[in-house]
């Protein structure tokens, strides 16, 4: 059945008018092509018998009929996938809602579906009975509005509820109202007995039940194991519908992400994700979840049992690599390896135990080592005081020695059971007492002890006994020492005295001891020497933080009950998944999924039921589509009509207007169809514009000065450079163009090889941009003459003049090379004239230039230069003012001491500077020409 | 189906080219004139000039006055320079006078997408090129009713100016050449689409040829006018009358139209032959040089005949 409905089906009557439309359209031909035809008179008098205009072409007719039909359809309000208008009638609706964690990922959709059902029932006036699987109560049909309220109040539970519990209430309800329609929003997992529940429901209901579900997509985490090198967790999915790839994320107790690991289920339903982190970080992991999977099942809580602790192994036996199976370390390593980081003492280390303690081992396993009083004993005592756990294994050495680092005083020698000289048979283990940390472990019949060391019977021995043989002989004893714990296995860690190391009990026992070590570290020193087990293992652990159905940790609900200590509780209404216990560390985690639990998709085949997809397709209003299609067809019709009328030619000017109309129509339809962001235009980035000034600057070489803003200084610069340019043109082959004043912040500097910068201390510093540009200018080979003009005010060795201070500030952010006073043999003194210094309006100022590399020894050269032109020169003699002159050559500014010779020297200095700028170190070689020629002559 | 259209008034004016109107000059005149020159140059044949003294406009030489000659022939200005008397001789020009008439009526301003250019453009181009060609060959060419017979080098520009002046006059351009009786031995070239009543055409032609002039009539036709390539629902409008023909299925009119056209052409050709005129049809989808070559051949044949 096509899921199509009409909101106004009456409008479809309009379809009956289509034949009339067809008739009308058929006799209305398209507009004729209008053409000028000069020789028309030749045929004007001809009379045609057939002057009936051509019929409307059939494709056009069809198109227009389609438009008309679409209009009628649009008016009828077509809706695709109309809301399930369920069976009419006032049947009571019994809505059973799965609210375990498997329902959490799709909770919103479930609630939406249930709401839609309840609302539909409301429209029909049918009462609704709502029951959540986790809280079976007596079902009662209520008004839909109240049912809706109850539905909204539902939250998914973090456990998978047992469905059988709800059956009683449903049965009762159906007994009262046999005609009720049963709708079960199943979570799609078999967990909780889905099949049995469905069978029972089917047998109860008179009509086929509606089972609303979807292909089970739930993914879950379970069985987190802190293995060597990585924390691995089983990623499960119930069916292949769940996403195959994803990431497992790890968080610490405060919720900070610690790491993540990808997984790929491919086509399997189970894989393991490994989170590889350093062991310290791994131990801080409090829970794992699947990224994006919001359910309690997708969260694996990690407690102390999964923490990896460092366990140091030291053995008194000499290491026998050749026969590893006989070495006690072998069994210990195997037993501890899965959940602890085992560090073995190096075979020939001078102080193996000390090294292990230094390594930070939480648990020290000493197998058959006799601890003699002395340094080692002191280390171990200190270790115990600090909360360390020492696990000792008996052996011939321990039996022979008499050390007292044992929970109980030992008899020398021990005893042998079932040997050749003994009446007795090897003894089995007695089930563990409640006080024992091993309580809950199955002792089994396979463990037998054939030899052991014996504890002296003394008061309090039974309290210190964790495990005993069937005859009551202690096999494992423990005693608190300081904040630490000493545990003694009265047997060896290898198989010579008992087969305990071969049994599955052995790793479990060790594991509990290792877990205890964590508590040891946290627990305060005992105030009194009470029973050990009571202190360390409280009877029950109160819920601390529990998960909600969506897998978020929060305060435990009021219904949460403590879990018995030492047991792995199954998650349920009483024990919601979460952390149990007190404090931040010795927490016990209850997970939504038990490690061995594997969710399976529910199978309802063969049951009388109606399967309904949860993912009900949303009703789609087809009206916009119909109208849009109509519009598009109108456009097509317009083009077609134009084409039939011969208007679709825009090659000639005559067709231009029609073409333009068509283009406008096309653009309009595209604009309607195209998303608005298509119209977003990208403005091109502004291109740097070469100004007229730049162009003229690039065309001619010219001197430049920095406009300081001080009118007098700028005027002096301008006049001085003008005069210098004139002098250069007269005396050298360089004919510079008119000098130009530049603003480093605004103007492009690359065109000017020579920049004169008179320092005016009263002016503000140029902006940072200008300083950057000046720095770049100097880096690119530009030459700046800074003129501090302070020769008369500056004193050598005195405080810097304001100008010098200003210059220092300016150059603070610039990479300025080391400067030195211009040496007499510097090439700048010889580039054109041979001069002694740079004279300006004053003659006594110092001139600084980039320091030259030191003179090579043994070679005297008349001129020296660096590899490149100095980027700057700092003068103080106010050069420009000395250069400046009027037309007749008279100086414009008073010179000190004065005289035409000084001005000439100033000009010569200026010429040398410009030549130095333009020719670089060329003259340094040029002065050797005579020598070179002499050498060539030889 | 083929599109056909009339030239807009702007295009129409531009077709004439005008010195005064910079637009038109830029758009059309240089093109027309240059094209006309190019075509004329490519068609130009050997010297037609007589290169000897005779009756003509252009100076040929001075020669000494011979006793007995009419004193009026003495060129006094030259003679005053020395003691002898000189007679100015002019080059003998055995030029025909060729009268050109270019139809600029409304029906000429028509172009279809099959044609290379409008009939008007083609007629102007052909006429101007022909004039240039003939002037270079030493003939004198005049625009019938507009200019005197010229043999100057800038005949194209002057003709174009005259045509433009005429075009800018307010009256509708005539469909037939002016009713002049051309001088004997004068030759006429009539460029028109000849879409006129054959009787009127015959009457006008007889007037033109009444004193013994001969010439050629070139019927410029658009390919659409020749082939009637219309089909379907078409409304045909006349260009100079409000007549409209609505054809439901234009294709059914084709055979009739072509028959009518043929008989119309035949009537025109008969008229031309009767008055000693040649008649040829030029389609605007053919290059202009084609008709120029044909015209040159015909005029040379006429000159020698």
Key terms for this structure?
heterodimer, A: 938 residues, seven-stranded mixed beta sheet, 30% helix, flat, B: 305 residues, alpha/beta, 2 domains, five-stranded parallel beta sheet
Written overview of the protein:
The complex is a heterodimer of chains A (938) and B (305). Chain A is of the alpha/beta class and 938 residues long. Mean pLDDT of chain A is 79; it is low at 525-536, 650-656 and 674-686. The longest helix of chain A is centred in the last third of the chain and has 22 residues, at 623-644. Chain A folds into five domains: 11-31 and 54-79 and 619-648 and 662-672; 93-216 and 601-617, Rossmann fold (3-Layer(aba) Sandwich), CATH 3.40.50; 219-302 and 540-590, no CATH class; 309-536, Class I glutamine amidotransferase (GATase) domain (Rossmann fold, 3-Layer(aba) Sandwich); 692-929, Rossmann fold. In chain A, helix 20 (768-779) links the parallel strand 36 (754-758) and strand 37. A seven-stranded mixed β-sheet of chain A has the order 16-15-17-18-25-24-23, sandwiched between helices. Chain A has 25 helices and 40 strands. The termini of chain A are far apart. In chain B, a hairpin with a 6-residue loop joins strand 9 and strand 10 (244-247). Chain B has helices spanning 9-16, 22-27, 29-43, 76-79, 119-136, 155-168, 198-208, 223-227, 254-274, 288-304, and strands at residues 4-6, 59-64, 86-90, 97-102, 110-112, 140-143, 187-192, 214-221, 234-237, 244-247, 277-283. Chain B has two domains: 4-48 and 95-304, no CATH class; 59-90, no CATH class. Mean pLDDT of chain B is 78; it is low at 18-32 and 44-49. In chain B, the strands form four sheets. In chain B, strands 6-4-7-8-11 form a five-stranded parallel β-sheet, with helices on both faces. Chain B has 305 residues and is α/β, with parallel strands linked by helices. The chains are: A alpha/beta (938), B alpha/beta (305). Chain A binds chain B through residues 29-30, 32-44, 46, 48, 50-54, 644, 646, 649, 651-655, and chain B through 1, 3-6, 8, 106-108, 110, 113, 193, 195, 222, 224-225, 230, 232-239, 241, 243, 245-249, 252-253, 256-257, 260-261, 264.
């Amino acid at each position: 059945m096509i899921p199509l409905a009409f909101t106004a089906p009456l409008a479809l009557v309009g379809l009956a008018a289509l034949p009339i439309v067809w008739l009308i359209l058929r006799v209305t031909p398209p507009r004729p092509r209008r053409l000028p035809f000069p020789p028309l008179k030749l045929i004007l008098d001809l009379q045609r018998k057939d002057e009936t205009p051509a019929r409307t072409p059939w494709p056009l007719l069809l198109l227009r009929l389609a438009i008309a039909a679409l209009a009628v359809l649009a008016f009828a309000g077509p809706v695709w996938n109309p809301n399930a208008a369920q069976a009419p009638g006032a049947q009571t609706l019994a809505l059973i809602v799965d609210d375990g964690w498997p329902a959490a990922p799709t909770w919103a959709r479930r609630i939406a579906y249930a709401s839609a059902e309840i609302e539909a029932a409301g429209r029909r006036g049918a009462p609704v009975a709502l029951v959540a699987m986790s809280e079976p109560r007596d079902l009662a049909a209520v008004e839909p509005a109240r049912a809706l309220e109850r539905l909204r109040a539902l939250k998914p539970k973090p456990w998978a509820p047992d469905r059988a519990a709800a059956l009683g209430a449903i049965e009762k309800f159906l007994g009262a109202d046999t005609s009720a329609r049963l709708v079960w929003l199943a979570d799609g997992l078999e967990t909780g007995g889905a099949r049995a529940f469905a069978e029972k429901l089917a047998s109860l209901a008179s009509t086929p039940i509606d089972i609303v579900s979807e292909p089970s997509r739930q993914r879950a985490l379970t069985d987190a194991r802190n293995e060597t090198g990585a924390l691995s967790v089983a990623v499960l999915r119930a069916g292949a519908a769940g996403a195959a790839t994803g990431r497992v994320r790890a968080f610490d107790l405060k919720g900070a992400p610690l790491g993540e690991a990808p997984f790929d289920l491919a086509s399997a339903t189970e894989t393991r994700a490994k989170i590889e982190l350093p062991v310290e970080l791994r131990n801080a992991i409090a829970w794992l979840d699947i990224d994006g999977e919001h359910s309690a099942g997708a969260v694996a809580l990690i407690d102390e049992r999964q923490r990896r602790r460092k366990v140091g192994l030291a053995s008194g036996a000499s290491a026998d690599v050749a026969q590893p199976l006989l070495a006690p370390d072998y069994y210990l390593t195997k037993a501890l390896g899965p959940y602890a980081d085992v560090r073995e003492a190096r075979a020939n280390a001078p102080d193996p135990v000390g090294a292990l303690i230094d390594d930070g081992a939480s648990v020290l396993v000493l197998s058959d080592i006799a601890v003699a009083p002395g340094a080692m004993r002191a280390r171990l005592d200190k270790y115990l005081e600090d909360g360390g756990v020492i696990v000792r294994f008996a052996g011939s050495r321990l039996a022979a020695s008499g050390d007292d680092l044992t929970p109980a005083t030992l008899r020398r020698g021990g005893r042998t059971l079932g040997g050749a000289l003994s009446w007795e048979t090897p003894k089995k283990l007695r089930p563990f007492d409640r006080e024992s940390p091993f309580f809950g472990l199955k002792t089994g019949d396979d463990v037998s002890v054939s030899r052991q060391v014996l504890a002296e019977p003394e008061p309090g021995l039974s309290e210190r006994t964790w495990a005993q043989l069937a005859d009551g002989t202690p096999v494992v004893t423990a005693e608190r020492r300081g904040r630490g714990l000493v545990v003694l296995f009265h047997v060896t860690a290898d198989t010579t005295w008992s087969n305990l190391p071969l049994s599955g009990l052995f790793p479990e026992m060790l594991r509990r001891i290792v877990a205890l070590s964590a508590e040891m570290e946290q627990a305060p020193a005992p105030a009194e020497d009470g029973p050990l087990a009571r202190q360390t293992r409280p009877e029950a652990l109160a819920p601390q933080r529990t998960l909600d159905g969506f897998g978020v940790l929060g305060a435990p609900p009021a219904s949460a009950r403590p879990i018995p200590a030492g047991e792995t509780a199954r998650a349920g209404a009483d024990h919601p998944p979460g952390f149990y216990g007190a404090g931040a560390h010795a927490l016990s985690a209850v997970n939504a999924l038990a490690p061995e639990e594997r969710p399976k998709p529910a199978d309802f085949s063969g049951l009388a039921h109606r399967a309904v997809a949860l993912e009900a397709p949303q009703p789609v209003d087809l009206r916009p589509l119909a109208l849009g299609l109509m519009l598009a067809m109108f456009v097509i019709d317009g083009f077609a009509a134009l084409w039939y009328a011969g208007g679709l030619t825009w090659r000639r000017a005559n067709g231009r207007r029609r073409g333009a109309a068509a283009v406008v129509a096309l653009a309009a339809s595209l604009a309607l169809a195209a998303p608005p962001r298509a119209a977003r235009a990208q403005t091109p980035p502004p291109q740097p514009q070469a100004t007229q000034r730049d162009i003229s600057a690039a065309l001619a070489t010219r001197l430049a000065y920095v406009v300081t803003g001080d009118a007098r200084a700028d005027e002096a610069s301008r006049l001085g450079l003008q005069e210098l340019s004139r002098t250069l043109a007269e005396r050298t082959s360089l004919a510079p163009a008119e000098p130009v004043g530049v603003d480093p912040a605004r103007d492009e500097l690359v065109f000017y090889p020579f920049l004169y910068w008179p320092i005016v201390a009263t002016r503000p510093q140029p902006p940072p941009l200008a300083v950057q540009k000046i720095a770049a200018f100097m880096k690119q080979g530009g030459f700046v003459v800074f003129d501090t003009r302070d020769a008369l005010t500056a004193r050598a060795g005195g405080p810097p003049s304001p100008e010098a201070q200003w210059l220092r500030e300016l150059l603070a952010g610039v990479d300025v090379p080391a400067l030195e006073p211009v040496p007499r043999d510097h090439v700048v003194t010889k580039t054109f004239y041979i001069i002694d210094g740079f004279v300006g309006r004053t003659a006594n100022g110092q001139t600084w230039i980039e320091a030259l590399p030191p003179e090579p020894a043994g070679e005297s050269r008349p001129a020296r230069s660096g590899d490149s032109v100095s980027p700057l020169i700092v003068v103080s003699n106010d050069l420009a003012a000395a250069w400046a002159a009027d037309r007749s050559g008279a100086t414009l500014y008073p010179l000190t001491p004065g005289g035409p010779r000084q001005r000439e020297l100033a000009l010569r200095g200026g010429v040398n500077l410009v030549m130095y700028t333009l020719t670089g170190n060329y003259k340094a070689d040029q002065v050797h020409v005579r020598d070179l020629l002499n050498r060539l002559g030889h | 189906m083929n599109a056909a259209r009339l030239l807009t008034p702007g295009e129409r004016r531009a077709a004439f080219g005008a010195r005064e109107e910079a637009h038109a000059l830029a758009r059309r005149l240089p093109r027309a004139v240059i094209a006309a020159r190019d075509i004329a140059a490519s068609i130009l044949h050997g010297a037609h000039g007589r290169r000897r003294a005779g009756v003509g406009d252009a100076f040929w030489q001075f020669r000494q006055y011979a006793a007995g000659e009419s004193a009026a022939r003495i060129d006094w200005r030259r003679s005053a320079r020395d003691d002898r008397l000189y007679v100015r001789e002019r080059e003998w020009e055995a030029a025909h006078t060729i009268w050109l008439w270019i139809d600029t009526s409304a029906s000429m301003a028509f172009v279809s997408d099959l044609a290379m250019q409008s009939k008007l453009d083609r007629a102007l181009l052909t006429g101007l090129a022909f004039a240039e060609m003939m002037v270079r060959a030493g003939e004198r060419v005049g625009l019938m009713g507009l200019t005197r017979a010229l043999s100057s080098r800038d005949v194209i520009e002057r003709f174009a100016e005259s045509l433009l002046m005429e075009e800018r006059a307010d009256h509708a351009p005539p469909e037939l050449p002016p009713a002049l009786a051309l001088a004997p031995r004068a030759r006429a070239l009539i460029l028109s689409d000849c879409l006129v009543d054959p009787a009127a055409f015959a009457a006008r032609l007889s007037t033109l040829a009444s004193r013994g002039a001969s010439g050629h009539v070139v019927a410029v036709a658009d390919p659409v006018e020749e082939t009637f390539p219309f089909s379907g629902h078409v409304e045909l409008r006349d260009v100079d009358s409000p007549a409209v023909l609505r054809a439901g299925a234009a294709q059914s009119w084709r055979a009739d139209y072509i028959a009518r056209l043929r008989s119309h052409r035949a009537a025109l050709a008969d008229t031309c032959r009767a008055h000693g005129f040649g008649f040829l049809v030029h389609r605007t989808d053919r290059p202009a040089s084609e008709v120029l070559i044909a015209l040159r051949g015909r005029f040379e044949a006429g000159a020698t005949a």
